[in-house]
Amino acid sequence: MIVHLLDGTYELFRHFYGLRRATPGADRKYGAAAGVLGTVLEMIEGGATHLGVATDHVIESFRNQLWPDYKTGEGLEPALMAQFHPLEEALVAMGVTVWPMVELEADDALASAARIAAADRRVQQVCIWTPDKDLAQCVSGTRVVQVDRRSRAIRDAAAVRRKFGVGPALIPDFLALVGDAADGYPGIAGIGKVTAARLLNQHGAIEAFPPEVLGAQRERALLFKELATLRADAPLFNDVDALEWQGPSAAFGGVARRLGAARLQDRSRAARGAPRRGRRQRRGD
Fold this sequence. Notes:
This protein is of the alpha/beta class. The chain has 2 domains: about 1-160 and about 230-280, Rossmann fold; about 165-230, Orthogonal Bundle (DNA polymerase, domain 1). The protein has helices at about 10-20, 30-45, 65, 80, 85-95, 105-120, 155-165, 170-180, 195-205, 210-215, 220-230, 250-260, 265-275, and strands at about 1-5, 50-55, 95-100, 125-130, 145-150, 155, 280-285.
C-alpha cells in the first residue's frame, strides 16, 4: 500500500488565495474548505486508499515559547481562519483521518505519521503532499518522499540533496543557518545557502562545528535548529489500517451542503463504490 499524508493547512491557504485571485472581492464563506475536500476526493478517485490530513487547529505551538518572533496567527485573514475548524469537521464526516494539532504543528503531525507508516513493512511508500521545505527532513531514500502538488514531482533523498545541497538529515541544520522567513526566524547573518551547504558537508551537524565557525552565534544557531526540527513522536495512530478510507458517513451530505459543495456527496459515494488504482507521479525536483 501507499500512504498519503496531506498538509491540510497548506491546502487551505492554497485554495483560499487561489479562489480570491479567481474571484476578487467575492470570498465564498467555505470555499477554501470545500476546495480542500475536493482535493482529497481527487486523490481518492485517483487511487489513494490510505491517507491522513494534518491541520493547525491553532497556529501557535510550543515553538512560540522558544522564540518570541516565531509565526503566530496575527494578521491571518479572518475569512481564512474561520475555515480551519469547519474543514476538520468536514473531513471527519467524509471518513478521512484528520489530525488537528494544538501544542504541536501540522508539520509535526506529518513527520510523526510518516515515521509510524514507514515502520510498517506492508507500506510500499509514504508520500507527504506539501512543498514545505521543513518536511524535506522526513524524506528517506525513495521510501518516504515529498510530493509537490503544483508540479506533481516527487522529491526523494537524491532530489533533496540536489535542491538544498545537503541530505534530509541535515535539513534542520541548513534551515537554522539560512533562516526561514515563513516561520519567523532569520538564520545566521552572513551565511547563505551555498555557505550553509558547504559548512554542513564539511563538518556535519551544527553541534560538530569547530567553535570558531559560528563563534558567539553558536547558541542562536542551535536554537534555530530546535525550531526547525520536526517532532516525530506524536502518537497519532498505532496501525496504518486506521488510515484506510471507508467512505463518507451519513452526516457528510448535510456537511457538504453547508459548505456549499453538495455534489461532493455524490462524488464521495461514487469513489467508495469504484475500484481504485494508484497513479504514478513523475520524479523530479
